[in-house]
Amino acid sequence: MAPTPQSKLQTIQVIYCSVLLLLWIIVCPIAFYYCYEIWQFRHEIFWKRRYPKLTIAAVLSVIYWVGIGRPIGDLSDIFPSIHKKIPIPISNSPLSQLCLVVMYIRVWFLFYDYNNGLQLISKQWETALLSPTDSSLPLTNTAITQPKSYWTLSKKWEYLRYRTVIK
User: Fold this and answer.
1) Where would I find the beta strands (DSSP E) of 12-109?
2) 89: closest CA among 72, 68, 64, 65?
3) pLDDT per residue over 85-130, tens digit each?
4) Dihedral sign from CA coordinates of 4, 5, 8, 10
5) Domain boundary residue, one of 68, 92, 116
6) For the chain, how many structural domains are there in total?
7) Does residue 101 form part of some domain?
8) Residue 100 falls within a domain, yes or no?
């Protein structure tokens, strides 16, 4: 006996609702707990360097999209009888891309800080190794008179400030 399309749809509905319920009961409280913990330790140097506010924003945007936004958009596909009650196309809204934008901004900040640290250490070593107190080096050394300009040291955050438009 072959399954009918109606029984296939009911199976999909049960699986979808079960996964969504597990998300709401298990994953969301755990995510909220860890967001709370990150918020409590946000002033410690370990967490401060990892942008706790952006981390929490990324987690909350994913939770919103996976737990609320996407299921509302999927209602008409999973439950065909609700199609006329919710005409709003949630899946095409700009909120669907909010998760990616927040994560990209966080990755950019982490990358920028990493490069800034590398270039700062390189600059400090260069200055320490080629200092004018060394009698074997002439004072006209170009590394001392015209120091190498690193992009993260000379224009800190300028790239983001002028190239991002948030309205």
Assistant:
1) none
2) 72
3) 555 555 556 767 788 888 888 888 888 888 877 878 887 787 777 7
4) negative
5) 92
6) 2
7) no
8) no
